[in-house]
Amino acid sequence: MRANRSIRSRAAHQRGISFIGLLFVAVVVGGLGVVIAQVIPTLIEWQAIDKAANKAKEGSTVPEVRAIFDRAQAIDDFKSVTGKDLDIRKVGDKVVVSYAYEREIPLFGPAYLTLKYKGETR
């Protein structure tokens, strides 16, 4: 008898998540998942742009750097930055290529997530 009472009293004090709480958590996690799924392709694109800029720094003149970047752009198929958008300068004897751009991801209604990317070759 005494064992039954102990089990019943422990069961009465157990807490858990309610169905409404579970729905709320599912909606929040689902919303974050949708946003993350839209951000990942922009990160992959940024990596391709950074790789193209690092290739382009091998050029010695501004038109040559732009041409190398545009060839890499055609191969990796990104559209956010072109050779004309690059800021090219010489620091000492090295060519430094930098870029900056923004991407907007529509969330809902008038709300957008704006991602600002910028980079510079080393």
TrEMBL record:
InterPro entries for the chain: DUF4845
Pfam families xref list: DUF4845
Domain of life assignment: Bacteria
Membrane keyword on record: yes
Keywords: Membrane, Transmembrane, Transmembrane helix
Spans traversing the lipid bilayer: 20-40
Name of protein: Membrane protein
